[in-house]
Write a structure and sequence with these properties.
This protein is of the alpha/beta class. The chain has one domain. The protein is built from two helices and three strands; from the N terminus they run βαβαβ. The protein has a three-stranded parallel sheet with strand order 1-2-3, covered by helices on one side. Helix 1 links the parallel strand 1 and strand 2. It starts with a strand and ends in a 6-residue tail after the last strand.
Length: 67
Amino acid sequence: MKIIIRVDATVSLGNGHVMRCLTLADRLRDLGSNVGFICKESPENLIDFIRETGGFAVDPLPDNPAL
């Protein structure tokens, strides 16, 4: 099963939410799912952290207030 997690966060806001999503993603991967993320490219985003820490693919979205 392919699962995509949408999470936006920066170093100063929402990083706890990212950590919870990474925990969920790790467990889903352990159960055989192919997990990826979609994140907004805001200043100080955690895209690289998600890629490096969890080894997950991340598709960035432009930093557009309408999204």
